[in-house]
Amino acid sequence: MTSSSPRKIAIVAGESSGDNLGSSLIVALKKHYPDCQFIGVAGPKMQAVGCTSLYPMETLSVIGIGAILKRLPSLLKMRRELANQLIESGADLFIGIDAPEFNLGLEQMLKDEGMQIVHYVSPSVWAWRRKRIFKIKDCVDLMVTLFPFETAIYERHHIPVTCVGHSLAYEFDMLPDVKGAREALGLHEDDKVLAVMPGSRMSEIDYLGQLFLEVAANMQNEYPGLVTLIPAANERTKNQMEKFIQGMEEPPEIRCILGDAKQIMTAADVVLLASGTAALEAMLLKKPMVVAYKVSWFSYQIYKRMISLDYFSLPNLLAGHELVSEFIQADAEVEPISEQLARLFRHGLTDQLLADFTHLHEGLMLGGADKAAQDIKAHFFEKATNE
Which residues, including other chains, have CB under 8 Å from residue 95's CB and lie 6 or more apart? Predict the structure, then answer.
C-alpha cells in the first residue's frame, strides 16, 4: 500500500525533453511533498531541482532500431541493475518519463515487485505497435498524456489516464518578442533569419546535419545576406556540425551557437527542424517551419510497415490536418526542402497560420506539471489515505 505522504519517488528520463518535463514535475510535486526525495536517471535540470541520478541520462538517448540493437546488451544490463537499485531504495512510486523502449520494461519489473507506476508522456500506441497497449495495461497504474488526442485509446482499454497538456505551452508567450531576441543576438530588425535545428541526439545530427547545411547553402545562394543560426544542444553536437561545415566545398555562412534554441527560433523568420519537441516549440513561437526526419534504411523499413499515420510532426498531429510541410526519409532532400523554405520566406506568417497555431497553443494549456502532480497525488496518495 502506498503511504499517504511519499518519502521517495523514483523517476527516469531519457533525453532533454524528458529532463524538462521531469524538472517541472519535481518542482510541482515538492509543493505537495516538500520533504520527498527523488532518485533515478536525470538530466541537468532534474538534478538542479534535487533528483539524484544513478546513471548519465545520455545513456538512454538512442534512436533507430539499429542503434538500439547495437547497445541492447548494455541497456538491458543497466535496466536490471537500475530496477534493483530502485527497489532497494524503498521508493513509494515510480514515474517513467517517455523513453518507452527502456521505461516500459523497467516499469514491468518494478510493478512485479509491488511498486506503483506512472508513465508520463504517452508512447505512440495510437500510431504504431498498437499491441503495446496490453503491456501498458499490465504495468502502468496511471498514464499521463501531453496531448488531448492521445487519451481515447487508454479510455477504450480502461487504463486510468489524465491529459495535462504540455508545460511548454506556459513557457511561451502568445506572441513572441522577435525584436528583443534579435537585439540579444546582435541581429538587425530587417535581417532575413533562418534557424536550422537538426536535433539534439548525435544520431539525428548524423542523418540530418549535412542535409540541413546543404539546404542552408542553397538558401543563402537564393537570399544573399540571409542570416543562418544553429543552436547546438551541447558541445558534442556543436563540434559535429562545425566539422560538417568545414568539410563542405562552399560552406554557408552559419553561426553555430551553444544553447539558446528558444531565443534563436524567436529571432527567426523561418525554422528548418527535425521532427520532435522542437516542432512543438516552433509552433508555440508561431514560426513558419519545415519539418524533416531521417533514420537508417533498416529502421525505416521496419517503421514504415508498422506506422499508420498521415502525419508525423506535432503541429499536424494536433491539428488533424497539414499545417506545416513534412519531409521524411527519401523525400528529405535538398531541393524540395529549399523550395518550401523559399515559399515560406516569400509569404511569411499568414493570418490563418497564426490563428491555427494560437488555437493549438491555447488547447495545450491544461495545467501541465501542476495538474500532473495533483492527479498523481489524488490517484495514489489521497486514495491511500481514504483506504
Answer: 9, 10, 11, 12, 22, 25, 118, 119, 120, 376
Residue with cell 521517495: 8
* DSSP-based three-state secondary structure for 28: helix
Give domain status of residue 47, yes or no: yes
The answer to the question of residue 274 being in a domain is yes
Mean pLDDT, the chain, as a whole number? 89
Among 2-6, 34-38, 102-106, 274-278, the minimum mean pLDDT is found in 2-6
Domain that holds residue 213: 171-363
H or E stretch covering 38: strand 37-42
The CATH code of the domain that includes 135 is 3.40.50.2000
The C-alpha atoms of residue 257 and residue 341 are separated, in whole angstroms, by 22
Q: Does an H or E element contain 11, and which?
A: strand 8-13
Contact between 197 and 273 under an 8 Å Cβ cutoff? The reply is yes
Q: Are residues 238 and 209 in the same domain?
A: yes
Q: How many CA atoms lie within 13 A of 90 on its CB side?
A: 6
Identify whether residues 181 and 61 lie together within a single domain: no
Whether the pLDDT of residue 206 is over 80: the answer is no
Which stretches within 187-234 are classed as H helix? Answer: 202-222
Collect all residues with Cβ–Cβ distance below 8 Å to 51 and sequence separation of at least 6. 11, 22, 23, 26, 38, 39, 40, 42
Sole residue written with cell 500500500: 1
User: What mean pLDDT comes out for the span 56-79?
Assistant: 70
Do residues 345 and 143 make contact, with C-beta atoms less than 8 angstroms apart? no
Backbone angles phi, psi at 365, to 5 degrees: -90, 75
CB 9 within 8 A of CB 20: no
* Residue 182 within a domain: yes
Q: Rounded to an integer, what distance in angstroms lies between the CA atom of residue 208 and that of residue 234?
A: 16
Residues 197 and 137 in one domain: no
For the chain, the domain total comes to 2
